[in-house]
Specification:
Helices cover 44% and strands 19% of the residues. It is an alpha/beta fold.
Length: 166
Amino acid sequence: MRTNDAALAALAAELGQALSAAGWRLALAESCTGGWIAKVVTDVAGSSGWFDCGIVSYSNTAKAELLGVPTALLRKYGAVSEPVARAMAEGALVRTGADVAVAVSGIAGPGGGSPEKPVGTVCFGWGRRGSAIMTDTVVFAGDREAVRRQTVAHALQELLKMLGAN
């Protein structure tokens, strides 16, 4: 997986080209990445033409209040779960004017893991307005920085695949 800064910049530029070509705008719902995906995409000149907004919803309260994630989902599955990532992506689409959304929620470490959800576990949600939200869970290796960097790369790579650009 490409995860250095130049690779992230290349992924973001490719994403911008794909979104521009489709005439779509992107919204982000980030938890464990703390706005890193938004930083990478807004580093691309001209991103104001295709990037709508990013919502950093680190706490469960923020996920519920800003993105409309049902508290019942948070209680039943926990913040790091595919149902919550799906709800975060849906909330980003519903609450913004964006056409495409990506959501991430994970355990970057060094603490916070469990046998069921070890450090490095990240849940993703990707969706387009009017289409089903796709989800995935990946367990990344490495320290906090490595987990978060790999999360940004995976979010962008899979979004490009969803858009048919990669």
